[in-house]
Amino acid sequence: MADYKAPLRDMRFVLNEVFEVSKLWAQLPALAEVVDEDTASAILEEAGKVAAGSIAPLNRSGDEEGCSWHEGAVRTPAGFVEAYRTYAEGGWVGVGGDPEFGGMGMPKVIGAQVEELVNSANLSFGLYPMLTAGACLSILNHASEELKAQYLPNMYAGVWAGSMCLTEPHAGTDLGIIRTKAEPQADGSYKISGTKIFITGGEHDLTENIIHLVLAKLPDAPAGPKGISLFLVPKVMVNADGSLGERNALSCGSIEHKMGIKASATCVMNFDGATGWIVDAPNKGLAAMFTMMNYERLGVGIQGLALGERSYQSAVEYARERIQSRAPTGPQAKDKAADPIIVHPDVRRMLLTMKALNEGGRAFSSYVAMQLDTAKYSEDAATRKRADELVALLTPVAKAFLTDMALETTVHGQQIFGGHGFIREWGQEQLVRDCRITQIYEGTNGIQALDLVGRKVVGSGGAFYQHFADEIKAFTDSADASLAEFVNPLKDAIANLELMTSDLLERAKANPNEVGAASVEYLQVFGYTAYAYMWALMARTALAKQDQDDFYVSKLGTARFFFARLLPRIHSLTASVKAGSESLYLLDAAQF
Amino acid sequence: MPDYKAPLRDTRFLISDVFDFPGSYAAIGAHDATPDMVEAILEEGAKFCEQVLAPLNRSGDEEGCQFDNGVVTTPKGFKEAFAQYVEGGWNGLAADPTYGGQGLPHSLGLLISEMVGASNTSWGMYPGLTHGAMSAIHAHGSEAQKQTYLTALTEGRWTGTMCLTEPQCGTDLGIIKTRAVPQADGSYAISGTKIFISAGEHDLSENIVHLVLAKLPDAPAGTKGISLFIVPKFLPTATGEVGARNSLSCGSIEHKMGIKASATCVMNFDEATGFLIGEPNKGLNCMFTMMNHARLGTGMQGLCLGEVSYQGALRYANDRLQMRALTGAKAPDKVADPIIVHPDVRRMLLTMKALNEGNRALAYFTAQLIDQAHGAAEAEQRAEAEGLLALLTPICKAFMTESGLEVTNLGMQVYGGHGYIREWGMEQLVRDCRIALIYEGTNGIQALDLLGRKVLGSQGKLLRGFTKIVHKFCEAQGAHPQLAAQVAELATLNRQWGELTQRIGMAAMNNPDEVGAASVDYLMFSGYVILAYFWLRMAVVAQAQLDAGSGDAAFYQAKLATCAFYFKRVLPRTAAHLAAADAGSDCMMALPAAHFGV
Fold first, then answer.
1. Which residues form the Acyl-CoA dehydrogenase/oxidase C-terminal domain (chain A) (predicted)?
2. Is position B570 within any domain?
3. Residue A543 burial (10 A CB sphere; 0-12, 13-18, 19+)
4. Domain interval for residue A564
5. Percent of chain B having pLDDT more than 70?
6. Mean of pLDDT values over B399-427
7. A336: which residues sit within 8 A by CB, 6+ positions away?
8. What percent of chain A shows pLDDT beyond 70?
9. Structural domain count of chain B
10. Which of B125, B168, B198, B257 has the most A C-beta neighbours within 10 Å, making it the best mutation to test the interface with A?
11. Would you please indicate which residues of B are annotated as catalytic (active-site) residues?
12. For strand A160-165 and strand A209-216, is the pairing parallel, antiparallel, or unpaired?
């Protein structure tokens, strides 16, 4: 496996040249104070060093060793404790945290790049700080001032970690049917009892305390998702002076043996009358969770991108070094026994597919992160509202499309290695295994698609969708004629999406199954169209600078590949969406 | 772990109703393969696979093979299962009776391999490799070699391997380095290192017969200078018993993503005694003899794993309660509805079902061609079958394994988070399937073989051999009362297939890169069209059975419904592959290697 190199050049291209992100920061006072282009650049460079130098070397060994469980204690693989300390001391856990409680206060668009770097280096490792950051967000937005002051500083500092306890054995997608109970106590605390499964970072040896955010039901709670509350339940009780007290009544019952992310502890957590404190109002637990959902889901999409990038780096190196067969047009490396396989068209097809999807994904996730920043920091209510709605619309696309494309990318990266791709030592197969969970957790990609079509597109009567379509149309209308080769297919793609959307809005009125029947393919068409927009934007920048640097020539070539070879996939997907739900319901369950 | 049940209902439908195996067995003179005999063999095979092999699948994955100082130990139970397999006569089922086989048709052997591969892919590698070695020796070995080696392999006392790959060459066998030096006694001293040798060393049999590609001292460079040698682990005595240990050894085994119970060995040959098989410098030809068979077998792995995954996913989708149906509660007495009510879960299940059953039809059709290529009475019939086989083999290998990966991933997705946990068994199917896209020639190589060597290399003749069949079918069924619209769709795609081929052929005359630029999308396009043809053949039969009022109406209705799903939701994929195959090589070849970044 090639040594990981942080793709800083491409990150700077996306942030500074394509999106000119410093202009956005200048308009948002809270960000203008803490970040500009130079600061951002320095931060990313530093994060790249930590990722490549301290975290990436633990990726393969972490996979081989895995986490181990012994009588409730979980040990992470060799080197994780030290690397986590380095990471925490650099302030990276709190990179997006509120400065009032010791966070770095960086915008999400910077946090997004840091996440890519860390997760490219080692996804299993990256999950621990990611879960902590997610827990912090919920606490920051929904907990009392007292809880915030008590917990956030140590969490941002990486001294304590966090976890999110949602899933139970019988309830994953359907949280309305959870059974964990919360009994109110005289002192205002609650006794939490129940079993949670699939709890990432539920127990480990990286920090002295772990703060669990647990969904549970109050005794008088209404049935279903409207009767769920959120509780903060620390592993070790925290005294009034901030020092650690006794162990709380909760424990890790076992860890799962998984396909991948083996160095990330996936725990069964047993709460046995554990002491917790309510976060936000009773029965508002799901709403409190949703605050961090947009951030987390974008983060999972970025995990996919991160693995795709890592796979690509190794695949390019291998394709340049591995010599095998001659080019169809005649020998290219006459002094060698065969040509490097990068001469073969089909190897190039795989590499360019990876490159186009990775770079499209980086631009798109950065774009969504900028909308999150606008929604959070803009002082103009209308701007905030539009950004909020765009975030709502694009988050499920970012989560599902980036991870679907990442599976394709990592599978290509493995295929380029031929037989060596199947051997653990070479590292490519681990990326596929690690990637596979990203399509499942934080809401399966099927659930993301339902969220997009049902809740966001149909739910807003098409209004959220219109923001995005209008922006793209404004771009295509004003684009220079020299961009026609990119803009024309983009126009067709957005016209196609427009038609699909109005058709779907119509059909969903008559039959609610139409939403679920169309949703996955609709999301994919949406994703390819969004990437087409990203690639047209990138091509515009690159076209203007192609004489300066090969980097821009490479961008243009990749843009052309995207439009010629990948965008046409929308035609098949669209045909499938048009086919509707009928063919899904010709069989009764027994006939399967 | 999902329990495996051999899908005998579907097998019977295909071999009796759709492809008329009994008629074709009679025509090739396979008189022992009576319908009763076939039924008994299938039922016994199913029992063995479900009860003996399937229970060793998860444990084999967890335990893996162990290497200790040149000795490889297979997981618990593997050795006993192999002994049972041999005792049951399964190993020699389709082998030549002259050397101890039962002489049943090859297609029947493939039906058994389907069950073996589905119940335990890793375990199936050992007999699978043995069958490959058997066919190479059968086709090219001398009578004495056959008497000694083929007999022992058929009886299952010995197993076989194929030693092709070396560290510096996989796809490009022209650059192998293993040497064969002629000895005074007519044997050869073989020296070199081979990697990725499945079943290169293990504890299932008393001897292992390696078929090794190597170069003679005076061999021409490249693929025309490769010879094939028999190199046994133990040299046979004059009476065919196990004799002295040969100077070869297993240096290590690989740690892999999947098929962990299959020993993938580094094999070191250190002036090992070998015997030339076939003519000098004709080694690749000898290998190609068994390639069709082996590649169909690899394609079948995609189907096998897809089938197990589907069985598991279906059971889970009926059991798992989560959310209410969008059209209102379907199981009001329970806290939630079974997830099979949700359209997206159905989309996944039906995609799995449509690809599996379509691929099964393709595999059985191809298996029948193997019978005909070997045993048809007329030379013309044999040649026709050979031509179709040449065309369909790379499609079976690549399309069926690509489908297998998609299907096993969908099966895992249906399980949600549980799909990712090893205990449930669904993720192992994905890992085990992944190698099938790589070995026996990567799918990219299959696509080049299809488009470059087979289709364009025959000036389109091999393709026309199949499109003609589709064309005739469409003409015959053009006015079908229920299926006419789908028949018309197939006819259109069949025409587009020919036109696409012509366009690529023209472009390739000016630029040889056009073949490799289009090949994978061309293969996938071909695969979806072929499956459309088989789905309609199945649908026509199912409709006829329903019209005739035959029993089991639910089965035939399900076939028709799955066919409808395939046409509505899967077949449209051809549009994207067509566009990509038509996009040309410019956008792929423009960037210099340095511009790929990093």
1. 283-451
2. yes
3. middle
4. 451-583
5. 100
6. 98
7. A323
8. 100
9. 1
10. B257
11. 440
12. parallel
